[in-house]
């Protein structure tokens, strides 16, 4: 049923050596057919020793050809769960600020190719850019350079400690985007056509970057897949740090946490989430610094107005059946779930789906449009259109390890072709075929995979219950 962290998947790129010469130095990857892979390229110095809990430092130029045939170390050293819906390998090592590039094999009449920079999910506490579900081969096939980025997580990336720059994980992503701008042309990419995209915490990071004054000009389009608005107040974050420090037997300071290994801290995070029973242990983008001077919704009203945005959520997120991350949920009949969805009160509605109209409302005066979608295909294994099951469709990797365990033996190849095509079209620069969102009740949306309907249907009102709930709580005003 689930995709294990230790599931056997090759971390090496197949094929023959291929070499590119970049401003960062010579990089040697592997090429097969129409695809070239360059894995684990460091974009920053390792965040260890004096660089631990410090702003990322641009990687020096490679003096020797860099072997990019294998995925690099991951910031996740200890996963939050024994299994997860998305296979998320943990790779040991200190050089965790690395990225992987999957590019078309050779230039053609579409070159230079648009670029999609992918940010993985994992609650800002876990996750891995080396997942086979994030393999960009279908994007390369269709003329898009796909870049998967690693960034610091949890305490290392988002702890507000005295003497430590805040939002280190977001600062990592900003530096990675700088690396892309400076080097991606060597891989056939167009540095002036960069889409930043991500899912779950990655989608939330996209929205945070879109709202940040520091990110202006670093990307031209944005995609948030089940992103949510997960910026954190300092009081909440400090409470988490106090609990973690107590469990580790150290003071809640840079020196205290620095006396424990990354793996030990991540183990403590997992233990505390288990002990709390509801997994309520929150670290993430912190409001109140130069990266995020304001809450994300307020920042979206001020920044990123020239950046078109595609965003959406799954129909059930965490309100479907059992998932690897929540194997024993209360069993709710489909009719009961539908009734709860109709009033917008579910976890999925308040944490994920409500973010879609809120973002559209915040961007109402933006010159660039916002477009909404809702993924409604119910996994026969997980019992609903649950969190993460849309990723293999958007990436068109239905044959990837772990997909059958999450989606069943017969996921719809036709739906994958359609959803992937829509995403590629957006990244390439085409305006979506359905109408723009306004942030008001009755907004149009693209609906994917609802049983008994067309695979993709342009509809209205999919987000109406959460729009009403948001407006009733006065979180967004007309």
Describe this structure in words.
This protein is an alpha/beta fold. The protein has one domain (3-472): 3-Layer(aba) Sandwich (Rossmann fold), CATH 3.40.50. The chain has 15 helices and 15 strands. The chain has helices spanning 137-141, 154-158, 168-183, 201-210, 234-248, 254-258, 262-276, 296-300, 334-342, 347-353, 355-362, 391-395, 403-407, 413-428, 464-472, and strands at 3-4, 16-22, 25-32, 35-42, 66-67, 83-84, 98-104, 113-119, 145-149, 189-199, 221-225, 309-314, 370-375, 444-448, 456-460. The strands form two sheets. Strands 2, 3, 4, 5, 7, 8, 9, 10, 11, 12, 13, 14 and 15 form a 13-stranded mixed beta sheet that branches. The chain has a two-stranded antiparallel ribbon with strand order 1-6. Strand 10 (189-199), helix 4 (201-210) and strand 11 (221-225) form a beta-alpha-beta unit. Helix 5 crosses helix 7. Belongs to the type-B carboxylesterase/lipase family.
